[in-house]
Amino acid sequence: MYPQNLNHKISVAPMMGWTDRHCRYFLRLISHHVLLYTEMVTTGALIYGDQNRFLTYSDKEHPIALQLGGSNPRDLALCTHMAVDYGYDEVNLNIGCPSPRVQSGSFGACLMKEPDLVAECISEMVQVSRIPITVKTRIGVDHYDSYEFLSQFITKIAQAGCKTVILHSRKAWLYGLSPKENREIPPLCYETVYRIKQDFPQLRIVLNGGVITLEDVHAHLKQVDGVMIGRVAYNNPYLLSKVDQILYDNEHPIPTRHEIMEAFLPYIERQLKQGTKLVTVIRPTLGLFQSIPRGRIWRRSLSGIPHDSKISVVRSALEKISNTF
């Protein structure tokens, strides 16, 4: 298990369809310290489905957190116990997703309106766990968007045993906006997150939403304990290459993009031998050469490849991009 006393200054958000095990392994090659989250996994999927499929990961992915979706305290406790057994470093409860599918399961952002139930869920999870139980939520939902409402919600979950709260700095609208629009239209309100940290100094407060540069991370860390970044880590993963040196005083040299891919090739080969399609494994690498001269050669070479493609396609793309410098 990864040391629990490490201060995770930066993390990559749980993103459905994005932060799968291949993505996490790839990102770990870029930064040793960034905290990685799984995609959200529902309690039903773990209890009635294939546990190994959802919970298995590489030891190299540490530090890694499992994000759960659910609203039944006993089910969440059972799944937390599973996470502990599998060696995760943290379990996170999703109280922030506004998608209709999530709402239909009575979890996600709609649970902000039921703080007593959330507190009961956390209490049950804490009782069976020796690893941190955290919550990712919004600063408000629908017309429940006053600072007083948010403060009371955080008070409830803190009393239940939650010591880390990840706050997406936007409110959520449960109806009328798509999940994508909920990430863009409600205005960012960083001051609300800063104020929560001031009013709850005993809690670890992590800010999420609209963070796209390491300069942004630095600015927010003056006010809060940690920062969570989202899709920018997927679209431009090399952003994380300087994290270890800048935020953790790590003296190891920053890896080049080519070194990262060379380190990823053995993993790709292992996955292909296990029957995984190449297109699935390399998807998180498509943005690696973003913002460099002729970097689109890499993306073009690997986008839309046949499902039966071999690793030679990747080696060829790497050679093409190498020849541009």
Automatic annotation (TrEMBL):
It comes from Candidatus Nitrosacidococcus tergens. The active site is at residue 97. It catalyses: 5,6-dihydrouridine(20a) in tRNA + NAD(+) = uridine(20a) in tRNA + NADH + H(+); 5,6-dihydrouridine(20a) in tRNA + NADP(+) = uridine(20a) in tRNA + NADPH + H(+); 5,6-dihydrouridine(20) in tRNA + NAD(+) = uridine(20) in tRNA + NADH + H(+); 5,6-dihydrouridine(20) in tRNA + NADP(+) = uridine(20) in tRNA + NADPH + H(+). This is tRNA-dihydrouridine(20/20a) synthase. Residues 12-308 form the DUS-like FMN-binding domain. HAMAP family: DusA_subfam (MF_02041). FMN binds at residues 14-16, 67, 136, 168, 208-210, 230-231. The gene is yjbN. Its EC number is 1.3.1.91. Belongs to the dus family. Belongs to the Dus family. DusA subfamily. Keywords: Flavoprotein, FMN, NADP, Nucleotide-binding, Oxidoreductase, RNA-binding, tRNA processing, tRNA-binding. Catalyzes the synthesis of 5,6-dihydrouridine (D), a modified base found in the D-loop of most tRNAs, via the reduction of the C5-C6 double bond in target uridines. Specifically modifies U20 and U20a in tRNAs. InterPro entries: Aldolase_TIM, DUS-like_FMN-bd, DUS_fam, DusA, tRNA_hU_synthase_CS. The record marks 94, 180, 183, 296, 299 as: Interacts with tRNA. It is an enzyme of class 1 (oxidoreductase). GO terms for molecular function: flavin adenine dinucleotide binding; FMN binding; tRNA binding; tRNA-dihydrouridine20 synthase activity. Its cofactor is FMN. It holds the Pfam family Dus.
